[in-house]
Amino acid sequence: MKKVFLLAGFASIVLACNTNSNTSSAGQDTLNHAAHNESNSNTQNQNKMNPITATMDKMMHDMHAAKPTGNNDIDFAAMMLEHHKGAVEMSKVVVDKGSNAELKAFAQKVIDDQNKEIGLMHDFISKVEKTASSNSEEFQKALTHSMMAMMNDNTIIYNDIDKDFAAQMIPHHQSAVDMAKAYLEYGHEKSLTTLCENIISSQAKEIDWLKQWLKNKII
Fold first, then answer.
1. Which residue ranges are recorded for the region named Disordered (predicted)?
2. Residue at 108 is within a domain
């Protein structure tokens, strides 16, 4: 699946992270590639789009819309917050329109768990001091790298809400795990490190569950 919003957002981050002429040229190549993909895949995207993939694309756009503040704690919380919102919206689609009771129960748990964490991150952002982090540039690159799981164009689209939810939530969760690991390397705020440890533990288990569920449905 071609993710136009994702590629455009990724290109803008690549440009922002590079300052010399050679890397700027490479970033321009990335932008040109993204534009080329957009031109050639609009029809394909329209044919493949469904509520799950549409929600995933919107989430990626929203995640990359905000300019980094330079504070690792705020930037992580803001990006993970949008990431969680995407999971909640995808899960709502399954709860409302899905047909598999087991998967609907899974999706409702995602909604409940991640809404609690969204509240925690909102509260944190509203109170934290907005001082710059000395390793912000390195952290931004690590965050960008953590998005790679969701940039996989080989994710199968079934045009079935239940199967598409499982297929898309696997790389979505993997990116959350990778983002959390990046923060543990570059961030030190206790409330966020605890959040990241919980994300890594719980979502790794959910990835395994989703893989097994999907495997059982496509055999």
1. 27-49
2. yes
User: Alpha helix locations (H) across the chain?
Assistant: 4-17, 21-48, 51-65, 72-97, 101-127, 136-146, 161-186, 190-218
Judge contact between 72 and 184, C-beta under 8 A: no
**Closest to 106 (Cα-Cα) out of 91, 87, 88, 116:** 91
Mean pLDDT of all residues belonging to the chain: 83
Residue 171 lies inside a defined structural domain of this protein: yes
Question: Within a domain: residue 92?
Answer: yes
Name the one residue in this structure whose structure tokens are 């990431």. Answer: 83
Provide the 8-state DSSP code for 147.
G
Contact 143, 79 (CB under 8 A): yes
Tell me the pLDDT tens digit for each residue of 37-62.
443 444 345 445 689 999 998 998 88
